[in-house]
Amino acid sequence: ADPMFLSRLGPGSMGGMLALPQGQGPHHVGCTDVMVGHTRQGLFLRLFYPCLLRAGATEPLWIPRSEYCAELADFTLRRRWCSALLSITIGSCRVPVSWNGPFKPHSSGYPLIIFSHGLGAFRTLYSSICTELASWGFVVAALEHRDHSAATTYFCKAGAGREEWIPFQRVPQGQKEFYFRNKQVHQRAEECVRALRLFKDIASGRSVLNILHQDWDLSVLQGNLDLARVAVMGHSFGGVTAVLALVKEPSFRCAVALDAWMFPLENLLYPEVPKPVLFINTEKFQTPESVAKMKRLSSRNGQTKIITVLGTVHESQTDFAFLPGKLISRIFGTRGTLDPSKALAITSQATLAFLQRHLDLEEEFDQWDDLLEGVGDSVVPEAPFCRSKL
């Protein structure tokens, strides 16, 4: 890598310096990867959960393998040669959770959140919000979608060590973007539904093999999940995925959509969304068309809320907000003016207040109810117009 380039990153921005925040809730957080099935019809997810503190616990890498670095460079910069540089800068960053940490039992069960990533992302790039929610007593399953919208992903074929990678795919020449994305959003929402079914299977005592970590037994979840309290959540493409999942699966009681990219959803479906949605928008991303679609949902359901966090950009709701170094932020365009920890606090507190209300939780998350009305520092109701860079 170009040493001048690296020196311009400045001190404190080299590998391992990504400062992802610890969860602020009362629980320690553990994390494991789960892959089921030997075909692309299986599932791949990273699980965040309340765990018991254990001495000598290791922290997982933020970018799980070098293949992800290469594809991230290709997707964000359209320059694959940057992957070595990205590896140097962010390849050794770790997430402040216990890798394969012992699950903390809970007699009445933790509520479950299925989380859907954005376009060109993958299962680990929302570790800050997933960790935060797990620290407040949720099990969070961050999917890695196999619809060619992840930067890259893979599945393990039957037989030792045979991996098949599923690359990111741009809209094919001559194809209308809506039709391409609409097909993807339906596949993604189906994967959210299949993830919920997976947890129902585990809860009912069926033996489910995690082909990645036989040493972390999924059966520990049995009796520790409250599957009457399940929500679906996502960012950008994942936000609209969460909305569609409500249509497909009655067990999802509500959805939280972070800066939802509403474009891929067909108009026919808006009247069909049966449950409340919390739309948390950033200041710089949304278009009037997208906001109009959100308002269509809120006009049909008084419990659906739309708020905007001021001083934020689209990437403020991802882990990239916590990357140090001016150059990195220039590359990813990740800098809002609001402190990323403050932005994360607003997002998670509004989410917790909303989940308390619609999952009937017996917590004190209603202390943050004002945020749902867009009342508070750096929050406004609805969405500011005419600021979009789309």
UniProtKB/TrEMBL annotation:
InterPro entries, alphabetized: AB_hydrolase_fold, PAF_acetylhydro_eukaryote
Organism: Tyrannus savana (Fork-tailed flycatcher)
Catalytic residues in the record: 236 (nucleophile), 259 (charge relay system), 314 (charge relay system)
Keyword annotations from UniProtKB, A to Z: Hydrolase, Lipid degradation, Lipid metabolism
Keyword Nucleus: no
Protein name: 1-alkyl-2-acetylglycerophosphocholine esterase
Enzyme class: hydrolase
EC number: 3.1.1.47
GO biological process terms on file: lipid catabolic process
GO function term, MF aspect, one: 1-alkyl-2-acetylglycerophosphocholine esterase activity
One Pfam short name: PAF-AH_p_II
Keyword Hydrolase: yes
Lineage: Eukaryota, Metazoa, Chordata, Craniata, Vertebrata
